[in-house]
Design goal:
8-stranded mixed sheet, 4-stranded antiparallel sheet, 12 strands, binds iron/sulfur cluster
Length: 378
Amino acid sequence: MAMQENDLLLEVKNLYVDYQAGNGSVHAVRDVNLTLKRGEILGLAGESGCGKSTLAFGIARLLRPPAMITGGEILYHSRPQAERKGEMVAARQDRHASKEEIVDVLELTSSQLRAFRWNELSVVFQSAMNALNPVMTIGTQIIDGIKAHRPDMGAAACQKRAAELLDLVGIAPDRLRSYPHELSGGMRQRAVIAIALALNPELIIMDEPTTALDVVVQREILELISKLCKEFSTALIFITHDLSLLLELADKIAIMYAGAMIEKGTSKDVYLHPRHPYSYGLLHSFPTLTGPRRRMVGIPGSPPDLRMIAQGCPFSERCPLAFDPCRSVTPELLPAVANNPEQTVACHLYNTKYNETVPGEERFAQGYEALAEGRTAR
Ligand code: SF4
């Protein structure tokens, strides 16, 4: 879909999320900003514990105590849905012809939230087996979801819609009578995606939806997700620790580290020119199947304790190119290079106040090599 400026769907501004713990708050998400357009696929990547799932669940208002949103704004640009006709394409066309309204997600009441979720935004959780009720058929689970939000829809229409949804995700409609244990792992994940699509949401959040699947099924599911998002102009936030999955699927990639965004850009830019030393390390942690061979690196050490984030760059303890300002000044997300404002990075190496020459990839490679050998790179 060709995206225009007014296609803005979601704005997250200066979002903070803490987990209250007995021995201090864990600052799981810190000052995160992002925007998403209608139909756009954003990949959120980073190591386990970097805050990506907490951020996504914060957007969906699915966090439970001890998690607490302590600051920021989540604005959702909603189109009225009164004209929905039960068919995805028709509903989309009606919606696009209508005027939009900006919803302050953090101000929604419980009943408004219930209406918001699944109508506007749905979530696919990590494990399909856990997301599905083992003692209910797939059909009952899809129909229950539809009925909860469309009480006026008759039984026959619900049944028809459920069959249509299974067909959409590549499962024969007669499987509506199957229980989750009668389906393979890939089919269960497809069924969960069908449930997420049931009410034509504009935005779907998927939290590591393919982690438990083998690589062949994983690829099939990714292709299905990509096809459905394109077909219905559904925006997607896809969370994974596996950056390689995002390179083909996502339009944009945001990389998180220690609760903060450290790099954002188009998939192509991040893949071809990772600007943050951490992004470089992640991208060089797996082998490529195509293109020239490249040296793999590991990122030594582990992320900082999120209860005690010190001043300075949170990656400084592990960074092969850390220098003096990194230990005292926290870097801001800024364009890495002047001719591409879309790719932003939180690293002092790109700030002319601290560093005059933009580092090339060979500096990163040499830096990681030196770290592996116990030498200093700078
Ligand atoms: Fe490394 Fe400094 Fe850049 Fe942080 S700001 S990534 S420590 S060079």
